[in-house]
Amino acid sequence: MNDHGTRTGALLDPRPSRIELVVLDMAGTTVADDGLVERAFGAALPDATDEQLAYVRATMGESKITVFRHLTGGDEERAHAANADFEAAYARLVDEGHCAPLPGAEDALRRLRDQGRGIALTTGFARDTQDRILAALGWNDLVDLALCPSDVDGRGRPHPDMILTAALRSRVSSMAAVAVAGDTDSDMRAGRNAGASVVAGVRTGAHDTATLRLAGAGHVLDSVAELPDLLAAREG
Question: Residues of the signal sequence (predicted)?
């Protein structure tokens, strides 16, 4: 013990933890959206009101079945039918070639791997849609994990479950060794709820800087391409 009653060996290390795992959103963060989500929602709910479309925009990043439950007033049968139509419409858009990485995203993935960090991609889409996107982009060998709400009993963002599951599967030393990046407020809240030490918003998707900051973003980047440099600078 020292004079203040603190165990000398228990003093906290002032250096930030090295980031071992980076958890990244897909549409709007690493994958170009270009209105594809809204087009797929339009196919699922062709009579959607302006208020409903505003809700879709506000809840970008959340589990799609959760969004449809709200839009259908909790009618499970209608929600699941609409979600199936949404996923089918989005899959068609991907199959037609309307799927591309955001500028600098693929290079960022490669740089993160070169830095020795694990990479997990998370989404609010269903498994089949996520797999189609990864196959279309040729990213299966670039990432270590790809998780969707069905992998965590349906608890998508802003719940922390996908991030915590990625951390457990990656066997990180602590949640302080995890960084999260995304383009929506639900990404930011999920990162904070999980206890990640780096929660970064990107301005390439659904929500603006003020929204991302309000939801807990510690950093706001022009794009995910800036993330490898941010992490490297943070670790000196």
Answer: none
